[in-house]
Amino acid sequence: MSHPRTSDPLGQALLAYQHGDRHAFVTVHSSVTEDDQLPASYLYRTLWEMPELERTALEECRGRILDAGAGAGAHALELQSRGFEVKAIDVSPGAVEVMQARGVRAVARHDIFDAPATDEHFDTILMLMNGLGLVGTVEGLEKFLMHARALLAPGGQILATSSDISYLYEDEEGALVFNLNGPYYGEVEYTMTYKDEMGPGFAWLFADPTILQDYAEAAGYEVEFLEEDDQQQYLARLTLRA
């Protein structure tokens, strides 16, 4: 019996790039902004093509690292070259295939909520490119922060980037306009398309610093905000309290 192939637009674009199509891209559809194009080449960037927030995060990595939502493995490969032991995970079959082809040593296909196959512990969980969004929703953030406690070694850290997207809801006077009784404004719905292949919808969380701090402290983490850029994106370190 043949199974239908799981739709994997981002993975297909990465594979196309890996096989020589330098113009491969996915179209990103979101519930809050216009459609946008994400070139596959962006996920292949080298250290000096990375924004400063990401370079800072790589400097702050320590010990054994879990690179979550690793894409084409740009961060994992850079960390491997510095001598770190890195495990890269992504839900995209195409991304996993690309990372293996590019030389990422430990790759697995699962999401951040799946328990690892063995009793693995990490000193750093890395979540870059607005990577905190992988949790999906505020409820997912709460669930992930508890789940990560079991993944982290004593004193372990989560290094994550996220953004406050409240500016998308400002009117002409700069006042914020959103429904306070509705879902949190940073919960966004996305789909991706590669050529004529549309992937499944998925939720993505953009957490403002206050909500991240509140939930992380409640879950037993110390919170530090290490850096912010001019696009309201920030890098946070959550350290497991002893």
Describe this structure in words.
By secondary structure, the protein is an alpha/beta fold. It has one domain: 3-Layer(aba) Sandwich (Rossmann fold). The protein has 6 helices and 12 strands. The protein has a 7-stranded mixed beta sheet, sandwiched between helices. Strands 1, 2, 8, 9 and 10 form a 5-stranded antiparallel beta sheet that branches. Strand 8 and strand 9 form a beta hairpin. Helix 1 runs parallel beside helix 4. The longest helix is centred in the middle third of the chain and has 14 residues. The radius of gyration is 18 Å and the shape is globular. The N and C termini lie far apart (51 Å). The mean pLDDT is 93. Pfam families: Methyltransf_25 (PF13649). This is Methyltransferase domain-containing protein.
Task: Describe the SSE topology.
Elements: H1 9-18, E1 25-30, E2 36-39, H2 52-60, E3 65-68, H3 74-81, E4 86-89, H4 93-102, E5 106-108, E6 122-127, H5 138-151, E7 152-163, E8 187-194, E9 197-198, E10 202-205, H6 209-218, E11 221-228, E12 233-240
Parallel strand pairs: 3-4, 3-6, 4-5, 6-7
Antiparallel strand pairs: 1-2, 1-8, 7-12, 8-9, 8-10, 11-12
Helix pairs in contact: 1-4
Pfam families: Methyltransf_25
Domain Methyltransferase: 65-156
Organism: Hymenobacter cavernae
